[in-house]
Amino acid sequence: MFGTIIISVILIVLVSLALWSIIKARRNGRHPSCGGCCSACAQNYNCTSKEKMSVMKILPFEMKNIPLVLDVVTPLWCPHLGDETFKRFNVEYIMRNNLFDNDLHYELLESNEQTGKEEFCAMAFFARKGDVCRAQEWFDVESKKFPADWLRASQMSRIYIELMDQKTFAMMKDDDIKLTLYVSRKKGSGSKLLNELCRRFKGQGYKNLYLWTDCECTWEWYTDHGYELVDKDVYEPFSSEDEDYMTYIFKKAL
Predict the structure, then answer these.
(1) Which of 25, 76, 89, 235 is most exposed, with the fewest beta carbons within 10 Å of its own?
(2) Residue closest to 195 by CA, chosen among 205, 186, 185, 182
(3) Rounded CA gap, 70 and 92, in Å?
């Protein structure tokens, strides 16, 4: 009888300690199953108000998700000529001009553990100095269905992107990395993806993150988030008599 009481007391103490460990981990922002920091982990565990668990996963970008990216950027980047099919083609060509022949293409998925549904939330492409882009090979095949006067808009985009890439790569060293494309489909998910990838790149020995943007984007966001403006210039072909078309190159230490 006395031995049973002692065993019961020991079990109660052990259970209490286990519960306290879980509570303490949650208070410190760490997940009880892995001990990792939920805010920085590639697999974030977030409880909603209804206590439903969702998992954030960073995976290699799948080309089947290109249409989801185009849904976001086509209204922003499409030319003023051509039909809707051409406009999506032209924007995909812009996107592929930021897709280099490497393994630095990522996407962020959010899955609900109860429903099993996954949502594509964000994507990011990167490049190292010396990496090659093969967008022209895709363009040579897919462009045959469109008239030449429409395709001039595509070539203007390519020339502009290649020029800005060359300027940016010229500033980089071999241990720097360049953000080439960054699109978010869900508020806050793009920052989660970029922050985690920068943490990984730093661990792999990269020193600085470079990127370029222009006046059609919210370039001020980068100056407000710790990026250093290293080049500011006017791109004459896109400028008008009333307004200069400004380009910006940013750098941030990892």
Answers:
(1) 76
(2) 182
(3) 7
Least confident of 30-39, 113-122, 141-150: 30-39
> Can you give the pTM of this predicted structure?
0.77
In terms of Cα–Cα distance, which of 195, 201, 197, 212 is closest to 60? 197
The amino acid that residue 92 corresponds to is E
pLDDT digits (tens, 9 = 90+) for 137-158: 999 999 999 999 999 999 999 9
Name the phi and psi angles at 188, rounded to 5.
90, -20
Beta-bridge partners for 208: 253
Distances in Å between the Cα of 199 and the Cα atoms of 34, 38, 68, 134 are: 19, 14, 26, 28
CA distance 200 to 198: 5
**Whole-number Å distance between alpha carbons of 141 and 117:** 35
Which of 12-16, 91-95, 125-129 has the least mean pLDDT? 12-16
- Measured on CA atoms in the order 62, 63, 65, 66, is the torsion positive or negative? positive
Check the CA dihedral 57-58-59-65 and report its sign. positive
Work out whether strand 208-214 and strand 246-253 pair parallel, antiparallel, or are unpaired: antiparallel
